[in-house]
Sequence to fold (631 residues):
Amino acid sequence: MDVRQRAVGWSLWLAALLAAVITLAAGIGPVSIQPSVVIKSLLNSMAIPVGVELSSSAVGGTLQLPAPAVRWHSPFAYSINATHETIVMRVRLPRILLAALVGFSLAAAGTVMQGFFRNPMADPSIIGVSSGAAAGAVAFLVVPVAIPFGLGLQGAAFAGALLAAFAVYAIATESGRTPVATLLLAGIAIQAFLGSVISYLQLRSGEGLRQVVHWLMGHLGNATWDDVAVTAVIVPLLFGVLVAYSRDLNVLLLGEEAAAGLGVEVERTKRILLATSAVITAAAVAVSGVIGFVGLIVPHMVRLVVGPDHRVLLPAAALAGASFLVLTDTVARAGATEIPVGIVTAALGAPFFLYLLRSREVHEL
Amino acid sequence: MSADTLVVQELSVALGGTEIISDISVSVESGELLGIVGPNGAGKTTLLRAIQCTLPATQGSVTVEGQPVERLSARERGRLIASVPQETRLSFSFTVEQAVAMGRNPHIGRFGTADETDHQAVQRALEQTQLTEFADRPVTELSGGERQRVLLARAFAQDAPLLLLDEPTANLDINHAINTLDLVRTVVDEGTAAVAAIHDLDLAARYCDRLLLIADGELLAVGSPESVLTSHRLKAAFDVETVVSEDAATNSPHVTALSSSDSDRC
Fold:
């Protein structure tokens, strides 16, 4: 079958699965809500722009400027329990959508990193992004004065992530070339170094320790619609870049010299893939903390099913990652006391992965 | 502009300050197979990599179809030069057809997908290399000889006027070696220009139109196999006494190397 058909087929299938998972997850919690009610709440809050009105308003005294105002129309008005609607729209949905976006990003970046490093152990944190984000966040929590420019917790994590990734890249690059093996080792060294920084800060954190540990284990509990909005703009754009380079990523698997002979600008492609993966991971980690395992396990699971062609694998893994994290986060918050989602991803993901590993013949990657 | 497909002029390459090949000039025309022969470490692979611009030349120039290779983009270069590498890394369970289709990469734009021309080129390459029945098999399940054919098919699918081969027969048994060079000969007879580094002097003499003999990075001789493979030149290149005779079956030169005790008796 044609590659494009396979890519679209798998993507549609997994997108439908994601929609179903989201609808079910929104009904699960201390208050149980029927899927039909969830769907009605979603439809109720839909609004479509139906026209633009110009109203004159006074700006700066004498100058009269027409200001456009968009008129919205809500086509649906089901009568449902208002409390249920609030729970779905205000409490659960932002968290669920954020989980989907974070899972999507981590799985996409993990897929790219495994192909890029030709190494099955690679995950999105391999170039120091997660450690950098953690160091930034922990520094913010423990010594807030140390963070300039009034960055919030997420800003500090995002900045730390990019700083660490750039440091790894700069250390591994010599006269315009970045050997993958050097990059891998530089990443490990930077991770170890940042690990010691984080441990030291934890030791000094005193009262804030609980908050620090919570962040380091990954959490989606404080999700707001603002987080969702920002991530929902950044992630699809960067994902588009990765998809555009998915055929080059296939060719890179043959080795860099072979790829160069097959029309790939190797160093430029590597820079673009690295930078894009770093930013997409940083965006995810900044809003969620360090959630391990999604970026490592989901790409493997999906590769076992759809094969190694990144044109199919990348969108499929990203969508599967979204469903996976929504599911695991639902488990994490469904119990009497909420547990960090990072614990659940590993606890559920590892056995399932081992099952796939044993039930299918695995050669390499 | 020259009528030759490949023109190498006064090419020198240095690695870490040491000159690996120096001042080599040669040209190859369409429908011609040039064999590079010489001892281990003579610079055969380096010459091929410099032609492909994988290694930067310190001096001299390489043009393919009149275009200076170093100034081309990777994509343009990939449409002019196809190469079969010595080391064959074909892990990842891509199918044979997927692996061969990667040869079309330089012909497809970033946002494009394979069109009818690409499909036909891939199918033709699979047929030429008798891989059609293996098309859906993962490359990881193939034997060494079959994998070599996949790499050849990938290069054929690339549809480039110049084909470079680095030791294409190095790890193959005689049957697969002959088979591989027969395939190369076929595309060359169809009009491709090819340069192959070949270790086996008999095979090189039998399949190549001309040979280029290098030792220590310097060109010792270039010309017909009969004119290049002489005891005198082989002594200079390989530092070994040889007897060159005509092979009864193929009528091409046959080189027998003598051990030092043999040469005492001569």
